[in-house]
Design brief:
CATH class: Alpha Beta
Order of helices and strands: EHEHEHEHEEHHE
Helix content: 25-40%
Number of helices: 6
Mean pLDDT: 97
CATH topology: Rossmann fold
């Protein structure tokens, strides 16, 4: 089985489905990683931060044993300035190369504008009649982005698929710690303690010690 996880920003993959990715690897599935955006000096990031982020991506890639990593290179926080057809073309190219059975993507209503735009493009790039090899598409939640959307009915993340990550949570938290600048202190949401707390809550919902939750976009079987 081929699995593609799509990150709008590096660390989304770990927050949203890090434990599930580790489970796929242990099950012998081929896993691939697509990063849509990057930091760049042209938008105010220092060379030190850019190099550190590249190093983090390399380390994380090895920790997940990804078969291949695709970095699309669009500027972070600037997806609203990108020609939508160019974004779709870049994402589609990777999907056609991999031909994944399962796609993990960010939630469509996350508060981050990059996430919203990326989700819309990904949905366009996974139409069943053009990408018949895709059997399942799942949206993951990204703590500090998903739950921060205004509490309107159209923004609600309603999980209907749960993955038992009890065996993999400690490793997921190890991976998250690689993203040093993204880890926050309690009581902020992206603290190690609160990432674990979310996994505890999701696990309690479905009878596991720890779980990751998803919204099913489409499944064919």
């Amino acid at each position: 089985m081929k699995v593609l996880v799509i990150s709008v920003h590096p660390d989304d993959e770990t927050l949203g489905c890090g434990g599930t990715l580790l489970k796929h690897v242990e099950n012998g599935d081929e896993t691939y990683w697509m990063n849509i955006t990057k930091a760049d000096e042209s938008i105010g990031f220092s060379r030190e931060v850019i190099n550190e982020r590249k190093n983090q991506v390399d380390i994380v890639s090895k920790m997940y044993s990804f078969k291949k990593v695709f970095n699309l290179g669009f500027l972070t926080t600037r997806l609203h300035q990108v020609d939508f057809n160019e974004l779709i073309s870049s994402i589609s190219s990777v999907i056609n190369e991999i031909q994944p059975d399962i796609v993990y993507m960010n939630n469509r209503t996350d508060v981050h504008t990059d996430h919203q735009i990326a989700a819309k493009a990904i949905i366009s790039c996974t139409k069943s009649f053009r990408y018949p090899f895709i059997k399942k598409i799942l949206m993951y939640e990204c703590i500090s982005e998903t739950e921060m959307s205004p509490p309107f009915i159209e923004n609600v993340f309603i999980p209907n698929v749960y993955s038992d990550v009890t065996k993999y949570l400690d490793k997921k938290l190890e991976v998250m710690k690689v993203y040093k600048s993204e880890v926050q202190e309690v009581p902020l949401p992206r603290s190690i303690e609160n990432i674990k707390a979310l996994a505890t809550y999701r696990g309690a919902t479905c009878g596991y010690n720890f779980a990751e939750a998803f919204m099913l976009v489409r499944e064919k079987f």
